Amino acid sequence: MIVLEQISDKSRLEQFQAQFPESNYLLLAAHAAFPVALTADLLYKIWLNFKSDENGQLMDIPLEAVGFLLNSSLCRKIGADLYEIHDSLRDPLLQHLQNQSRFGIRRIDRLAKFLNAYLDYNKDKLPSTAFEKAQRFTADTRLDPEKAARSILEAYSRQVEQKLSGAEVDIYLSWIKGRLAAPKNGVGVDPIRLAETLIEGIRRLEQGDEALAREKLLPLRNFVQTDTNQITESGFRTKVPQNVLDFFQATETESRDNKVKGKVYAILVGVNTMQNKTFPDLKGPKNDLDLWEEWFYSWTDKMGGIQIIRLEDEQATKQNIYQRVIECINNAQPEDQVLFYFSGHGENKAQHYLACYDLEQSTQKGDNLPQSGVISAQEFRSWISSCQAYLTLVLDTHSGSDEWIDTENPKHLLLCSTSPKREAYELPSEEITHGAFTRAFFQVLSEGMYQTPLLLIQQVHERLKNNNTQPQYPLAIGHEEALHRPFLQNANRNAYLEALSSALEIWRAEEAGKSNLNEAIRDFLTNLGEPSEDQSDANWLQILEAALRVKGKQSIGLFTGNFDGEEVEALKKALAERGNLPFSW
Question: What DSSP state is assigned to residue 173?
Fold first, then answer.
């Protein structure tokens, strides 16, 4: 099903499908939506080279469909033998193609490679150098997004240096408008979106709209070196005005003030295959560990130091895991963080355990319980009993139980991929497979680090509902203080309350005395029509976090402006429902 927002697009699609009801005609249109513009020869070559799906099944599209499409309601003529599919239709059509298992993202990549090959070997068929440039850029957005982003930023550099009108930059931005983000492995920072947001933020700052500029630029602080004016994570370089440099330098000072105290010890365990073949091999665990490492290294400057211990397959024996956990617990200081992550097989019914590489089944007839090579919930809890640091346990396996941690300890936190007696699933992909929970988890984390476990798991649950065919119900389990402390940060509840209030611009420490915080929050609730006298202090965190969700943001420091009428009603609804969310025990 193709989802369209504009009535005109719906009308164009309905007209096309009424004229050509065969589904394969629409498939040709979906393929033709990848190039930014079409000629009759280019569309013919697409028809010729993509006659079968990715499984080798013939699509049976007649040659006459080429001419029909160019003259259909989906296309418009923009020059002599030059056409384009309506811009607002291109992404929905490509999404339609990508969503089908017999095509998927592999088909989109093949279209990009084909487009480059067509440009290389059909120079005499190209209507202009501008046509070639546009098509090369389109292919790069899929195959080499860093190169595409550099093209945008180089155009912006020329604009700044030569005091040009910005038309070239606007053309690039129009080509990527509405395009789906494509970061590495589908998770993390998309360089094209980063470049787009950087330019938009700079323009807002130049126009004097500091509030919106801050919203756009602040998330980019970690990707900009103010001493060399270089976006380091993707190797971009661009000229920016001095006031932008001043902005980043000021936010770097703010970032240093908010830097997480203490060191992080991360024990990452992934078991794809086990020596005992009773359990089937998995595809996702090693890939899940890659996501953790990428994320930790992207946040290195926010942490007081980090030690990553990665254990895969034969390294992930019970004894080896035990030694590493105890080693980290003994070394960690009270202000440090210890994170234990496990991706692999587990048990979540009568017993709760993690299956290590060296698991051995019982040889006794009728007894399927493992005899060794497993870590039971009670056993793990005994390992961590002497831990003085903050402890976060993240389990992407069948794992829902409060037995893993001491729920009365405000420093203990468990995030598990599923609730009791339910199963966790992998999310297969033609490119790379991940645990469904872990993939959703990092999609949320990539949007901002400063989040509480409850808010984090709520967002993960929403993504699992939207992206996974199997029902999966993640949980955040722990002491009240642990559930409301920002993820992997040791800030106390009051510090987080202050940060939330500052983010919503209802109170700032530098502008008001500490004693005014409670009064500011009560005024905020009253202005929303939420009677403050009916709300206890314990509800304030949930209320303010609901406000952040209504704003459509996930990280602290990105919010400006007041709530409009629609947002007030949405917040009231979120507040009314907050007690019915099954995300914590």
Answer: H
Residue with token string 């003030």: 257
Q: Which of 301, 294, 544 is nearest to 434 (CA)?
A: 294
Instruction: Name the residue among 172, 6, 186 with its Cα closest to residue 92.
Output: 6
Q: What share of the chain is helix, strand, coil (3-state, %, to 5)?
A: 50, 15, 35
Phi, psi of 337 (to 5 degrees): -120, 135
**In terms of Cα–Cα distance, which of 311, 305, 312, 294 is closest to 265?**
305
Cα dihedral 36, 37, 42, 48 sign = positive
**In which region does residue 126 sit, left (phi positive, over 0), alpha (psi from -120 to 50) or beta (all else)?**
beta
Residue 504 DSSP code: T
Give helix 453-467 / helix 537-550 axis angle, nearest 10°. Answer: 40
Q: What is the pTM of this model?
A: 0.49
Residue spans of beta strands (DSSP E) within 230-369: 230-231, 236-237, 264-270, 306-312, 337-343, 346-348, 352-361
What's the distance, Cα to Cα, between the start and end of the chain in Å? 38
**Tokens standing for 585?**
């025990």
Task: Give the number of residues written for the chain.
Answer: 585
521 CB contacts (<8 Å, ≥6 apart)?
Answer: 497, 501, 506, 507, 532, 540, 544
To 10 degrees, the CA torsion angle through 397, 401, 402, 404? -50
Class of residue 84 by CB neighbours under 10 A (exposed 0-12, middle 13-18, buried 19+): buried
Contact yes or no for 558/218 (Cβ under 8 A) = yes
Q: Which helix (DSSP H) or strand (DSSP E) does residue 396 occupy?
A: strand 390-396
Distances (CA, A) of 376 to 325, 349, 355, 399: 14, 12, 9, 10
pLDDT by 10-residue block (mean), the chain, 585 residues: 81 93 92 94 96 92 94 93 91 88 89 95 92 91 85 82 78 70 49 81 78 73 54 51 71 54 88 85 91 80 78 92 93 90 86 87 50 85 90 89 87 89 77 86 70 78 74 85 76 63 70 64 71 55 67 36 49 48 27
Distance CA 83, CA 173 (A): 20
Q: Residues near 157 by Cβ (< 8 Å), separated by ≥ 6? A: 237, 238, 239
CA distances from 429 to 99, 104, 194, 468 (A): 11, 9, 25, 12
CB 386 within 8 A of CB 326: no
Joined tokens for residue 47: 């028809």
Phi, psi of 562 (to 5 degrees): -95, 170
Which pLDDT does position 185 carry in this prediction? 43
Tally Cβ neighbours within 10 Å of residue 73: 18
CA 454 to chain centre: 17
228 Cβ neighbours under 8 A, 6+ residues apart: none
User: Residue 151: which residues within 8 A CB-CB, separation 6 or more?
Assistant: 137, 140, 172
